[in-house]
Amino acid sequence: MSFNSLGLSDALLKAINKKGYDTPSPIQEKAIPPILEGKDVLASAQTGTGKTAGFTLPLLQILSEGTTKRNRPVRALILTPTRELAAQIFENVKEYSEFLDIRSAVIFGGVNQRPQVAQLRRGVDVLVATPGRLLDLCNQNVLSLSSVEIFVLDEADRMLDMGFVRDIERIIKLIPKKRQNLMFSATFSKDIKKLANGILTYPVSVEATPENTTVEVIQQKVFRVAKGKKTGLVIKLISEGNWQQVLVFTRTKHGANNLTKKLISSGITAAAIHGNKSQGARTKALAGFKDGSIRVMVATDIAARGLDIPLLPHVINFEIPNISEDYVHRIGRTGRAGASGEAISLVSADETSFLADIQKLIGMKIPVEIIEGFEPDPNASTEPIKQGQGRSRNQRPKAGGNKTGNRNAKKSNTSNSGRRSRDRR
């Protein structure tokens, strides 16, 4: 199948061709037709499957076929959990609408709102936003959502995990009841289905891959290692393998900072990206990682959500996640666009039960190796890490509730400052 057969306009096909694409991905092939028909869609798709174009292309076509109002109120709202993902989606919207009379903008916290406000006042057809800044500007009467025709909720599972459900409910009340709704999520959990029932109307469900499965082209491996020897093993793997682009996941911000310092002291260029980093620092680190001046990016789960890093060859789980679905998302950063990739997990004794849960979820045993000089500690306890170092196994926070541990979330409240703190992740 080609993009020509999906019913897209010549202007969109021209933009797609300019980006060098000719064949739609599975999620694009499945999602675009029902969206063009005006139906609500609930889609399960991992980052890296082309899902952004899956909703952006038909959204732009629908808007371009409608009547453009003189003051250009917001007609399409794309809500996403993190600044990096918002910026990435905005770039896609701009690229695909190059040959259309469509104006777009992106708003998120952590930066001065004045340029964002100025752009909104000039008129915007498509708005990409994070929840906190969006509600801030609505509360200031700078922004109205009363003309929204299409509402997109992207990364819905992470929205819930970050405690945004109450903000989503407030935003829903600000947009018209009669609208088209599109929801994209990496998984279809019970909480996601419950959220979908409150937003979508007779939705068409589409899936790019079977639920909660990993990409087949990713080579997965586990190294059993003593907790205190993990840093040395990471340095050995990167140095001896001469790896030039590696994404490393830690459970906490503090852990990300410590590992980054030790990598740099060993002569490996590295940068940390997490919620305590300013937007400027995060943007600079990501740019360095993409252009090769930084070999290793050390990230927490939330900070890495939505990062657009094409053809990433190596992912290392310095600490494996205690939420099994997060493992699937982490290793999905590599092996994208048909390329091969390698995902390595360093597993200490207290992570044994987490590994068992992950293997149960993905339906396979991951090959295990032990490297001489980095053996596991035979006397270490296999008790899972304590609450405060990460959520206990199989324990997810209640949607919208307070959380501790590896999410390092601020207490959820209804104040603007509370929302802004979440947007700074």
UniProtKB/TrEMBL annotation:
Keyword field contains Hydrolase: yes
Span of domain Helicase ATP-binding: 32-206
This protein's record includes keyword DNA repair: no
Occurrences of domain Helicase C-terminal (ranges): 229-382
Any GO CC annotation of this UniProt entry: cytosol
Coiled-coil intervals: none
Domain DEAD-box RNA helicase Q: 1-29
Region described as Disordered: spans on this chain: 374-425
Keywords linked to the UniProt accession: ATP-binding, Cytoplasm, Helicase, Hydrolase, Nucleotide-binding
Polar residues bias locations: 379-392, 404-418
Catalytic activity: ATP + H2O = ADP + phosphate + H(+)
Protein's recorded name: DEAD-box ATP-dependent RNA helicase RhpA
Species of provenance: Formosa algae
